[in-house]
User: Fold this.
Amino acid sequence: MKTPLFLIVAAAALVSFGASAVRAENSDRDKPMNAEADALRYDDLKQTSVFTGNVVITKGSTIIRGERIDVMQDPEGYQQAVSIAAPGKLAYYRKKRDGLDEFIEGEGERIEYDSKQDVVKFIRNAVMRRYNGAVLADETTGSQINYDNKTDVFTVDGGLQNRSATNPSGRIRALLSPRVAASSAGGPVSAAPAPPATLRPSTAIGADKK
Assistant:
């Protein structure tokens, strides 16, 4: 029997992402979590929730979608979420960067998010994009992509799992747009805060493979 939506949302509040995560800088940590799913299994003793059936979780600007999403909370109050896609589909993640009109979004057959480390992993058939407003700025594809929200550093792995009809070698592919200097737009240059950090591919490719 499917669980009514209002019960799912109420139970989801018990495992709010980052309610006590004082170290995180992201403003989303203080926002309530809302969830929609066909079913929920919540274990208060283990502090785990398992959402199944076309799951959509939102918390502030953060959105996670998948066929199944497992949420676990440690004794310090940090959360880990694992989103698994339905066969033939991809799980989805999207988050606004603090203080910027930029969004990071990505897809994969499996997505793992660790709120303590503030790291997200897109696993198998992985793709990650950075949008400047509504404009696509960067796009990277690979077998696995690990992105660190704190440092804006990401690593991309290729390999056999990344092979396809259009990419038989399985090599990673990346579109990285250059940053435009503020002075190039013309007009006087006034004092302003330093520009936001650019996503930087790590040189240690494959250093964090599972």
